[in-house]
Amino acid sequence: MRTFITSFFMAAVCAVMLSAAQPAFAASYGVVNIQRIMQESKAATSVRNQLQAKQKAFQADLDAKQKALVAEDQQLAAQRSKLSKEAFEQKVKAFQTKAGNTQKEIQNKKAALDKAFAEALTKIQEKVGAITAEVAKAKGMNMVIAASQVVWGDASLDVTGEVLKKLDAVLPSVSVNVR
Question: Is the entire prediction scored with pTM above 0.85?
Answer without folding.
Answer: no
